[in-house]
Amino acid sequence: MTTRKWKLTSKDVEEPMSEDALNTLEEIKVAITYGEVVGLPTETVYGLAGDATNSEAIHKIFVAKGRPGDNPLIVHIHDKKQMEAFVGPVHENVKKLMDKFWPGPISFILPLKGDYIASNVVAELDSIAVRMPSHPAGRKVLQYVDIPLAAPSANLSGKPSPTKFEHVYDDLEGKIYGVIESEPAEYGLESTVLDCTQFPYRIARPGSISITELREVLKEDIERHQDTTERPISPGMKYKHYAPRQPLTVFFGQVNSGLKAFSYDKNKKNGVIAPETMREYIDEDVTFVSLCKDEYSYREASKNLYAALRFMDSSDVEQIFIYGFDVNDETEALMNRIYKATGSTVIKG
């Protein structure tokens, strides 16, 4: 299969749209309507989108990614009215959160209603995760296609998530029908997932919207994320994720400590991912990737994390060390992804 490339930027979808943009949207709609899957830009990471009502299309997503079948998918919509076909009653508190944060980087796990959504989207669960992306080009596709789209991250399962068109094409060329070339993801980490099927509500996966921001809206308790090995109700809960092929170790300490913070094998080719302020303290023969300006540039680090991991994954380094940030509300999602990439919370320091 030759994977199609479509160019559709935020500027392209501004009204009035050009004939080229409309033709591109029509091509994408036809492909999705006929059960194909495409790389879709969102503000978090690129998604691999398919018709959420078509079990064969969803099967193609799992096959292309090599994704375990018990790992449910998030359904993407452009209008809350679309949920009426597949979501049970939504509590007023959830509506408040949707009004505040949608469109944006948060998904809500809600009671599933009926059989409108293909069963393999939800991995046979009685709940469903739903979100409304804010990326202008991604939203325009959702509006134009006008059906719910299931869209996990558009990467090979277990590998670092894609934040750019090139990442998707490198991973899935020849495995999917097409990829939309657009602006890189604004946030760089997957959405916050809030489980609203229990009370208090619980963060099933941390993301850019923090527990503090959620509590400010509801003025009541919300439980923090806890890793689990049980059957996952949200992506990112059970399996090792976001990992390069090389061993990855997290290290903590002062920025000026460099690799002296722990012992490492100098007979191997080493790589370090860390704030730019640490570069001068790293040995010259070590491959260094700047993650952000300094140890307080959390948003920048989140946006750049997957691109840094992908760079190392494609390099000749044999082991990677990544800087560990102090854990707080602003870094919870970032450190969650870093720990997932190591496959363990065991660290060196």
Automatic annotation (TrEMBL):
Its EC number is 2.7.7.87. ATP binds at residues 67, 71, 153, 161, 205, 242. GO terms for biological process: regulation of translational fidelity; tRNA processing. It comes from Phocicoccus pinnipedialis. It is found in: Cytoplasm. One of its GO terms (cellular component) is cytoplasm. Keywords: ATP-binding, Cytoplasm, Nucleotide-binding, Nucleotidyltransferase, Transferase, tRNA processing. L-threonine binds at residues 44, 76, 131, 151, 191. This is Threonylcarbamoyl-AMP synthase. One of its GO terms (molecular function) is L-threonylcarbamoyladenylate synthase. Residues 22-209 form the YrdC-like domain. Pfam families: Sua5_C, Sua5_yciO_yrdC. It catalyses: L-threonine + hydrogencarbonate + ATP = L-threonylcarbamoyladenylate + diphosphate + H2O. SUPFAM superfamilies: YrdC/RibB. The gene is ywlC. Its main location: cytoplasm. It comes from the Bacteria. Required for the formation of a threonylcarbamoyl group on adenosine at position 37 (t(6)A37) in tRNAs that read codons beginning with adenine. InterPro entries: DHBP_synth_RibB-like_a/b_dom, Sua5-like_dom, Sua5/YwlC_C, Sua5_C, T(6)A37_SUA5, TC-AMP_synthase_SUA5.
